Amino acid sequence: MAKAMFKTNPILLGELLTDCEKGKLQLPDFQRSWVWDEERIRSLIASVSRAFPVGALMALETGGGVEFKPRPVEGAPRVAAEQAPSALLLDGQQRMTSLYQVTLRKQVVETVTPKKRPVKRWFYIDIEKALDPLVDREDAIFGVPEDRVIRSDFGRKTELDLSTRMGEFENLMFPVSMVFDFPEWQKECVSHFMETDSSSFQEKWTLLNTFQEQIVENFTSYHVPVIALDKDTSKEAVCVVFEKVNTGGKALDAFELITAMYAAEGYELRKDWFGEGTTVGRQARLARTHRLADAKSGILSEVSNTDFLHVVSLFHTREKRRDAAAAGKTGKELPQVIGNRQALLNLPLSAYVKYQDQVEQGFVAAAKFLHRLHIYRIFDLPYQTQIIPLAAILADIGDGIDHVTNHAKLVEWYWNGVFGELYGSTTENRIAKDFIEVPEWMRGGPEPTTVLDASFRAERLKTMRMRLSAAYKGVNALLMLKGAKDFRSGQEFDHTVFFGENVDIHHIFPKKWCETSGIQRSVYDSIINKTPLSFRTNRIIGGEAPSLYLAGLERGKGNAPVIAAETLDGYLSSHLINPNLLRSDEFEAFMVDRQRQLVSLIEEATGKSIPVDDVVSDDISRADLDAEFEAEFGPDDDESISDGEEARLTLSTS
């Protein structure tokens, strides 16, 4: 039978708070800062004052194999940081910090209002209200400003002055900061009334005794259930347990745990990633990589710290596998090459230090590679997840990418991942395989699994209507890569034109014309009827029939230069558009022809033949597709808007 890795003990609240103050109970460094607002603090005080349960705590005994850098609870004295903790609080930080600050610390509490405005508060219990069974306990608990005076009329009128003990006694307002020192406060209160109003002494004495029995003793005798994890609990178990109990906050990822473990060895991983002061962190450096024009950030701006660690882990685990193979191990004896969470939690600091710079250069090379494919923005990136193996491969081959054959193979691998739509889910194994197989392929080995697995059907083009699919974004990038020219200016869409002219995907047969002609949205909205164009060109196109807007472009409509018909035909052909079909407004023939041309484009990119005769009828599930579209994006009544502008907030990546 497996040994239980935890035990549960009820511990006095006062004892736990004292341990917080002395530093015997601290937080692991991955815990986030204390964030509770004054309303939640009031509610917590009310619950304890009524001896209501406020939930169990969870702590990890120290001294085992999992070493985290500790830090005291917020507000604890400096000497607490000098103490080696006996336990680290995994769950209960917000509750324990709140109770420590309002009771034992005896300093004003720096918190926030529910609207997140910073405030400083002392917390009080209205004794008479607290003892009134008809008054909600939370209504008997309130916070006062730092000077302990409540004012109204823009500060001109004093409503309640608790700035002195006399003010507290006269108003029968008990400071929560004295809850563990109630006898002292009670003694002073009794002395005050004996001197100032002896006739009411007996009444006040009875009231204070009742308050002690019904309210104060609920604090002093309050036991908190503490689940103590054994010191030998594994890193993975700590992470899983924390996520299970931390349902109210952001899920803990491997980065926080690794940060705490590295900190125990004196390495500041958080500073390395996020930066500090004048030090620019790795995250900012990646975000700025190949940032173009007026863009706030570049194509790597959404690379996460765990993405980065994932690539480091691939190198580290491959090194371990090679060492094991050199030692004569085979088959299942060989460790996996992997970058999942468990692998990250076992990633030693030495491996991170060894590979960090090489991995960063891999991501920088990935940004350059994507730009060469005309993928400039996060919004147009087919798969965020595919950046991980791309960066790993480039970090591994280094200058080898400059060899034309290697570059061509990497391009082929990338487009097969995109058009095969292979990086949409469950990618860990594929990432590891690509990291191993693609460099081997470049050295003359067999085709990688991703290239072998990829397949694309011609009819898929008809169902790609917005940036819900990586392949949709891939078609747009391929058109620009193959030299598509703007209908108005004749410029190719390099990064300068792309950003300077606000290029996006727009309809070829305009939406308004299609709807007037009775063409269903699910048909005219497919990628077959879309192409990259500048904002100004799309404005000129408007909602007219192609024959009309092409004539307008030729005569220089909208202050555009006059364009010869044969020149404009050349621009259209660069988008894989048959000029004759467009000029004669032959929508159905155009859709068939362009579908075949786009299929040829994808065949060239992936190196695979795609049959075009197995085409789904235009009538298949069109009503369902329209309903799905409306439910997802709502009605689209603006002819000039691009599909990129419609979905910009929700579809930045597949």
TrEMBL record:
Record domain GmrSD restriction endonucleases N-terminal: where: 14-262
Bilayer-spanning residue ranges: none
Residue numbers spanned by region Disordered: 631-654
Signal peptide: none
Pfam families noted in UniProt: GmrSD_N
Stretches with biased composition (Acidic residues): 631-644
Name listed for the protein in its UniProt record: GmrSD restriction endonucleases N-terminal domain-containing protein
Origin species: Rhodococcus koreensis
